[in-house]
Amino acid sequence: MPKTIRELADQLNVSKQTIQYHYQRLPAKNRQKDSQGTNMISPKAERIIRDKVAKPLVAKNQQTGSKKETKTSEENNELIATLRREVADLKSQRDKQLATKDQQIDHLIKLIDQQQQLQLTTVAENRELKAHIQKINGLLETSKSSQKRQNNSPEEDMYKNKRNKNWWHFW
């Protein structure tokens, strides 16, 4: 059940400011507020804060020779199990994200390969078209020269010869 900052501070025998300090440094998903806007500490957040607050207390208690008990081995085991589950969850999320990224990379590589193949095909077709155009241009030039030769038909040659034999031509 969620607790307030004051309740947790009283349980741990620390100031409200200490709990507030650690609460503000928790990830946003571990912080929550009730309907009145009061900061509430979930059991998970409580374990994290207890762990952070208890370590300095243990060191302080050892220095002052206090015989207060801070945590039982059962609480430690529970905390370790919780942390292991969180680590496993994070690894699972990371692995899923990496698998997704690998699929995206594979897809992009396939698209790049397709683009390169298309580009090579286009270049080859362009070369074929240029060769075909050059061949057609060559055929057109040969047909123009043969037309010129045909335009010089025997009738034209006879007309030219006749024109040259006119009487004024002899003067």
From TrEMBL:
Residues 56-79, 140-160 are annotated as: Disordered. InterPro entries: RocS-like_C. It comes from the Bacteria. Residues 140-153 have a biased composition (Polar residues). Residues 95-135 form the Regulator of chromosome segregation-like C-terminal domain. This is Regulator of chromosome segregation-like C-terminal domain-containing protein. The lineage of its organism: Bacteria, Bacillati, Bacillota, Bacilli, Lactobacillales.
